[in-house]
Amino acid sequence: MTNQEKYQLRLKRVNDAIALTEPDTIPFIPIVQCFPYLQAGYTMADILYDTDVSKARKSLFGYLDAYEPDALMGHSYVNIGQGPILEKALPKTTRWAGMPGDVIDKNSIHQFIEFPVLEDDEFTQFFTDRSGWIMNRGMPRTTGLLEPFADFTVNSMGVYGSHSAIAAAVSTPEFRQMIQTLWEINDMSSALAPRLRQLDADIEAYGYPILTTGFAGVPYDGYSDFLRGTLDGLADLYERPEEVMSYCEEQLEGTLQMVAAQGKVMPGKHVFMALHKGMDGFMSDEHYRKFYWNHLQIIINAIIDAGMVPYIYTEGKYNSRLECLKEVPKGKVIYHFEEVDMVQAKKVLGDVATVAGGFPVYLLDYGTKEQVIDEAKRLIDACAPGGGFIFETSCGMDLAKRENVEALAETVRTCGKR
Description:
alpha/beta
C-alpha cells in the first residue's frame, strides 16, 4: 500500500467516525504534545530552539514509525523553533523551556501567565479609543519589546507637520532598538514558517493526516484569558455584563470573518477550538448559555457552513454542559473531552456528534500496563458501539512511559476492529 493510500485509509476512518458510522477500526489519535520529542532523547528546550526543525522532524517521524496512529495531533502546540523569537519579543505572558534563567523545567511545555491587562478604570478608554488603549496599555503590559509604546501618543502632535513630530517620537534610542528587533523577528519568523509548513506537508505525504490545521476561539475565553484574567472576568459577568457582551459580540464578528477566510483555503480541514473557561462550576448554566454557548454554537455552525469540521476541545470537567453541546448539526462535529463521564457523554451526544478523548493520561505516566489496558477496553466498550468515537488521550502525553503507550496502541488496534 502506498503512502497516499495509507493516508486516504486513515482519513476515511476519521471521516467515518465524524459521520457517526463504524469505521473498519476505531481511529487511534493520541495527543502527542511533548511525547515524541522526549522519547527521541531531546529536551523541550532543544525543541524550542530547533530553528531548522531537524530535531522535531526526527522525533515525529520516529513516533509515527513506532506507533502508526491514524492522524497526528498536538505536535505543533509546543512552539517548535520559537525560542530565539521569544527571547527577542520578551512576552510577559509566557514562560518557555530554555528561556534565559531556566525559569521553568527544560522538559516542560510552555506556560501561560495570566493577569488582568485591562484594568478597572480603563473601560471607557477601551471602548472609545481601542487603538490608543492597545498601543499605550495592552502592548507594553504584555510584551517587553513593545514597552516604548507606553509613552507614545499622536494626540498632541497636531495635524500640520505631524510627520516631523512622529519621526522624532520614533527615533529615540528605545524606539530605534525596538524597530530593529521587530525587523529581526520578522526575518526569523519568515525563515521558520516555511520549514514548519514543509514538515507538516512531509508528514501528510508519509501517509498521516494532521487532524487540526485551522483555529478559532470563543469570545469570552479571549476576554478572560487576555484582557481581564479568570477572577475579574467572572466578576464582570455580574458587575459589568453589558461591557462583557459588547466585547464578545465584537469579537464574534471578527471570528466569523476569520472562519470564512479559512474555509476558502482549507476546505475539509478540522478547526481546533479549545474551550478554556466553559468547564463545570466556572459559571452558572444561565451565564454559560448567554456568554459562552451562545457564541460557540454560532461559530460551530459557521465552521460547518464554511466546509470544515469543528474540533471542540473541552478543558476541565464538562458533565453539566452536555445538553448544550448536543445542539449542533448531526454528524458534523468532534467533541474532545479531558474529563467527563464518557458513558454519559456517549449517551447524550452519540446520535449527534463524535466523542473523543477521556483516556486519562496519568495512567500512561504512572499506571501499570494492566491498568492502561483495562481502561482502554472500558472506553471502547462504552463508546465504540454504533460509531462516532475516536480514541484519543485526555490531553498531551508528555511524560508517558513508552511501554504504556505501546500497550495502549496494541489494545486499541486489537479491540477496536469492527
